[in-house]
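Appendix B: complex inputs.
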Amino acid sequence: ILNVEQSPQSLHVQEGDSTNFTCSFPSSNFYALHWYRWETAKSPEALFVMTLNGDEKKKGRISATLNTKEGYSYLYIKGSQPEDSATYLCAFIGEVQGAQKLVFGQGTRLTINP
Amino acid sequence: EPEVTQTPSHQVTQMGQEVILRCVPISNHLYFYWYRQILGQKVEFLVSFYNNEISEKSEIFDDQFSVERPDGSNFTLKIRSTKLEDSAMYFCASSEMQVSYEQYFGPGTRLTVT
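Resulting structure:
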């Protein structure tokens, strides 16, 4: 069973503060890691696709790092804004018996307080 | 901007009935997926579809479920005889290439089985 855990489950941050949260995944048979932002009543929106150990990706105030050897990825948000309030999902893609399996974490629900 | 669409947005059905959930993926995408999220639980992968056949499926995707691309634009998920535990949000997604690539999600269909 592929276990993907995100922490914390929920987070309240003051507007303007920076924050980060974690996705932990199996360190073997890694293929790719996705980050999604999921606003209430909308579709999950892809933020990053990460494939290489040491990858760092950035989109505006949001960035992510990847450590496949130890099995974690961090998502950082700099200078949080109210529009950053959403659930952030990671999805681990690993190879199991020659097949690619995708497993989601449970998400981190981020609330930005104005 | 192209997007994945799903119909209906909400479907209520009686236990034992068949339901068909419909999705229109982004037109130049080649890979299609169904996911579900039971209330309060993680998003779960159901099936991926490429070149008119299932490429991967999860343990959840048993004989009750089937997928089809009947006409080159729609991608459907059929549940043959619904159970109470099939009540969930069902998301369709598509990607240009295989599962490790960025996936675009539809808004979801909320299925309620009574």
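Chain B touches chain A through 22 residues (CB under 8 Å).
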